[in-house]
Amino acid sequence: MGSGLLPVFATPSVVALMENAACQLIANIPAGRVGAIENEDETTVGTRIAIDHVKACRPGCMVTATAQLISVNGRRYEFKVIVTDENGNLLATAEHSRFIVSSKRFMARI
Fold first, then answer.
1. pLDDT per residue over 81-92, tens digit each?
2. Is the dihedral of CA 79, 80, 81, 87 positive or negative?
3. Could you give phi then psi for residue 33, rounded to 5 degrees?
4. Residues of the domain holding 41
5. In what order do the strands lie in the sheet with 76-85?
């Protein structure tokens, strides 16, 4: 996916990578710890992302997204996420929110 006619790592792709980093962080929280999802029917959905996409990169560029869990408030998670390229250059930063939902109930409503 490019940005307009330009063959670059587009902002929607950056957002998807950032959301995935946050999901992976949640999935790796050990059972019994704050933020762990204990019910197998539950997952999280993204509810907000405020992104600053500050630098472009070409297709094939290796990028890394790193999520930091800032807070857990009931069913709501708040993250800071950064994306860097293989040279350590900052490509994007975001504040991201996710919310725990029942997978079955969520899918039944859409």
1. 999 999 999 999
2. negative
3. -90, 155
4. 11-109
5. 42-53, 90-102, 76-85, 63-73
Judge contact between 19 and 49, C-beta under 8 A.
yes
Domain count, the chain: 1
Scanning the structure block, which residue is given the tokens 């939902």?
Answer: 101
Tokens read off for 54? 């500050």
Q: What is the DSSP string of 75-97?
A: TEEEEEEEEEETT--EEEEEEEE
22: domain CATH number is 3.10.129.10
- Other CB atoms within 10 Å distance of the CB of residue 90: 12
What is the β-pairing status of strands 90-102 and 76-85?
Answer: antiparallel
Across the chain, which has 110 residues, the per-10-residue mean pLDDT values are 77 96 97 93 97 92 97 97 97 98 95
- The answer to whether residue 78 is domain-embedded is yes
